[in-house]
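Support case: D-glutamic acid complex. Customer-provided input:
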Amino acid sequence: MRIGVFDSGLGGITLLNQAIRQMPEEYYLFYADTDHVPYGEKTREQIMRYVSDSARFMVDQGCKALVIGCNTATSVGISHLRKEWPDIPIIGIEPAVKPAMTRYRKGGRILVCATAITINGEKLERLIERLKGTEVVDKIALPGLVRLAESGQFEKEPVESYLRAAFAGLDLKSYDCIVLGCTHFNFFKDSFQDLFKGVPVIDGSRAAILQLRRKLGEAGLFITPEEKKAYKDAPQVVWYESGRAVTDASELARIEKLRNRWLQLN
Ligand code: DGL
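Agent response - structure generated as follows:
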C-alpha cells in the first residue's frame, strides 16, 4: 500500500522528497488539489471541504497513511480527518515554532511566515501561547510566494522584490530565527537566507516525516517483502491533481522541476 502525501498544490513535494529521502523503499501517492490552490485565500469552510474530499480520495485509493503536507490544511482540518479515519495514521505539518522557541528560549525574536489562514488560526495561537517564554513572535502572511511557486518562478527577481516589499515594516536584523510555516515557502529558502543573512531559516518537514516513520513502525505498516515484489515494476510515485491522474508531459515536467529545486536547496 502507498503512503498518500497531500497539499493544496505542489508545496507538499517538500514533504514527499523528505519522505523518499528517509524511506526510499516505500511507494507514494501524491495528491495536489490544484483546482483549489491557493488555500490561504479561501474560507475555513471551503478548505475543510477540499481537504476532506482529497483525503477520502486517497483513502479510497488504499493509502495506508496520510501526510497532510500543507500547514493551512493541517491548521483547519487535521482533527476532523483523524476523527473520520481513526485507524489510519494521519500526520500533519505545523510551523516549526517549537524548535525555534526551544532554541531561542532566552528572549529571542522569531518570525513565522505562513498563509493568512495559518497565521490567523487558533491552532498557531495556542501553540505559541503554550510554548511562550520571553521571546517575541512576529507573524506574517506571504500569499505571493504560493503563486510564485505554483508558476515555477524561483529567480531572485521577482522573489526578493516581493519579500522586501512584504517585510518593509520589519527590522530584518532583529530576528534570531525564521520559521517557514507554508510548504510552498521551502522552495525559496535561499532568498530568505539572503535577506536574513546568517539567521537560521527552518521548517517542519523533517520532523513531520520522522513522526510518520514512528507511526508506521508502531502500526506495523512498513512495506513488506511481498509488497516489494508486487510493486517491482510500478512507479515509486503516482501523481494526482484534484482527483485526476497526471499524465500530461508538461505537468510532469513542472513537478520534476519543483522536486529538483528542493533537492538543490536541501
Ligand atoms: N502549501 C500550503 C501550506 O503549507 C498552502 C498554500 C496555499 O494553498 O495557500 O500552508
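The chain has twelve helices and ten strands.

Case will auto-close in a few days if no follow-up is received.
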